[in-house]
């Protein structure tokens, strides 16, 4: 539900953001997220039927969901940076997201068990989630500033020369800036989708993998395991910071894909807790590809189209995620007794592909 409902609204929000105000897609999607978290809180607090959560998830998606939110954030980040430093700027934004996720994952297991043996177990965690969502919405409405380049008229945007002397993917710049190289943009889309297939499949199956043998972790250990995944945001940030000085965007993308593919292959043969953390450690640059693909695309299109293009990419990734979740969960159920690492092996193959 959360993956498909944004298809109805996210592109429209991206178009409105490009045309009227950059914060539209961010604030509307945050409002939907807040309402969804409130639905969770009321379900736990008043013991409402579980079906309420489907309505809350649909409401979140109809407000744009993560697709509209993150495409809006990436558009703001792209507009507020020069082409030469854009990859670093976008990975810094991803780093902040990752650090937040790390803190949340570390605390989630403890917060969930705060009211032990009580019928409202999880109430503290749900209340914290509502508080964070409320803060995010009001911060975006009242504090977040739009880069001044957005305030310029459309005429100014079309007349100012942007530095495109060096193409991000190593090819010469197009002769006509009005017509971006569609073939390169299409290939970047395909690369992002295939890689996302691998990543989403692994991330979706991982909690099930943690809970079952051979690991058989409890809630706190699962929280720590998920937190280990968020450290990838930090290592990927450091990777972009270093690699962007001497490598092209395409090279950085491939480094990230090889990093994730190798880690997924190791994950397939994990038997002990320490082996799990070694496999996650090998994935240290796994975040670089998608972020750098966004940066590469932003250098090939006009600033006035960022919202629409980024939301199309995010919707493509969201749709891919829905299909991947269904397929991977089926594969996991069919193979967990024979070879529990089948899904991770498949992800490794897709990543190298």
Task: Provide structural commentary.
The protein is mostly helical and 353 residues long. The protein folds into 2 domains: 1-80 and 113-144, no CATH class; 179-353, MFS general substrate transporter like domains (Growth Hormone, Chain: A), CATH 1.20.1250.20. It contains 14 helices and no strands. It is globular and about 50 Å long. It is a multi-pass membrane protein.
Output mean pLDDT.
Answer: 85
Structural class: mainly alpha
Number of strands: 0
Computed CA radius of gyration, to the nearest angstrom: 21 Å
Helix content: over 70%
- CATH superfamily (homologous) name of the largest domain: MFS general substrate transporter like domains
Q: Please state roughly what percent of the residues sit in beta strands, choosing from under 5%, 5-15%, 15-25%, 25-35%, 35-45% or over 45%.
A: under 5%
What's the quick description here?
With about 350 residues, the protein is an all-alpha fold.
Question: Which secondary structure elements does this structure contain, and how are they paired or packed?
Answer:
Layout: H1 10-19, H2 24-46, H3 52-62, H4 65-79, H5 86-112, H6 123-142, H7 154-159, H8 182-211, H9 219-243, H10 249-267, H11 273-282, H12 288-298, H13 306-335, H14 342-352
InterPro entries: MFS (IPR011701), MFS_trans_sf (IPR036259)
Transmembrane segments: 24-46, 52-76, 88-111, 123-144, 183-203, 223-243, 250-270, 276-297, 309-328
Pfam family, one: MFS_1
